[in-house]
Amino acid sequence: MSCVKLWHSGTSAPLVPIEEVENPEFMGKGGFGAVFRAQHRTWSLEVAVKIVNSCECPELPAGGCLVWEAGRRRRGRCVAGPECGREGSSQEGARLQPSPECQPAISREVKAMASLCNNHVLPLLGVTKKLEWEYVSGPAPVTQFMENGSLAVLLQPQCPRPGPLLCRLLQELVLGMCYLHSQNPMLLHWDLKPPNVLLDSELHAKLADLGLSTFLEGSQSGAGSGESGSTPAYLAPELLADINWKASMASDVYSFGILMWAVLAGREAEIVDHKSLLREAVYPGLEVLKDLMQHCWSHEPQKRPSFQECRPNTQKVLDLVKKGDISGKKMNAAVSTVK
């Protein structure tokens, strides 16, 4: 497979021919842009195509946004979703495309993902050189489509959340982050939160959305400045307090501590006093996770453990569940105590 270089950075990735990607379907919008589900014709594989900040393109038709339905353009809601809420009609030749300001974000994500190979990191299949769908235009990262969505699905009140599954997912997250932090130079995620952890067909965790990520030796400007879609509740306090503070391994660990609470509590985290997040009663075996959470979200970065140090703790709880030392029923009861 040939490769394509993106912009001045020289970032390269396998080239996905645009004619191979067909039947696009809008799936959702995040901090960096819109994601579309499509079919790779030759591979017979469902893929996800990420269009960076597609709703903010200056070439949108006046008074509205483009939509896609059943293979045709029509008047209606913006592809960005209900949060946009604008009505409008399409215009011939108008396209959504990444602005020049967004191109570094695509390049960062491609650079971060291109050489990664781990069971718990979403693999990059390639990048389109010049996508020319009716409503989008420009290069876009292509990954395998994760049919079960993200960890955010598990935070819905109606979603079953078996305790053993939660423990396995936490362990897989730790393993994925151990892998990122073991890269040379170290790769930081910067935006670890439930929507950025995808679930495959067997509900295994895949770290995704590396548009904010950077290698530790590279430039880190904008880490805490709100340059992108970082969620404040998951952002380390040192990054919130000082926009010039450089992100570190400890920043990712803090985010994991908050994410761990969200997974166990079954709801999105908010910026509150951490003591209010925990109750005293935790069933024996889960106090390990309670202690780990508190260490991870320490306000002093140097007191937070590394992901390698987190690994034995999440593994210990998972082993207890597997051996039956903590039954599924008791595990679910224990999980409810952190809500």
TrEMBL record:
<dbReference type="Pfam" id="PF07714">
    <property type="entry name" value="PK_Tyr_Ser-Thr"/>
</dbReference>
<dbReference type="InterPro" id="IPR011009">
    <property type="entry name" value="Kinase-like_dom_sf"/>
</dbReference>
<dbReference type="InterPro" id="IPR000719">
    <property type="entry name" value="Prot_kinase_dom"/>
</dbReference>
<dbReference type="InterPro" id="IPR051681">
    <property type="entry name" value="Ser/Thr_Kinases-Pseudokinases"/>
</dbReference>
<dbReference type="InterPro" id="IPR001245">
    <property type="entry name" value="Ser-Thr/Tyr_kinase_cat_dom"/>
</dbReference>
<dbReference type="InterPro" id="IPR008271">
    <property type="entry name" value="Ser/Thr_kinase_AS"/>
</dbReference>
<feature type="domain" description="Protein kinase">
    <location>
        <begin position="21"/>
        <end position="318"/>
    </location>
</feature>
<protein>
    <recommendedName>
        <fullName>Protein kinase domain-containing protein</fullName>
    </recommendedName>
</protein>
<dbReference type="GO" id="GO:0005524">
    <property type="term" value="F:ATP binding"/>
</dbReference>
<dbReference type="GO" id="GO:0004706">
    <property type="term" value="F:JUN kinase kinase kinase activity"/>
</dbReference>
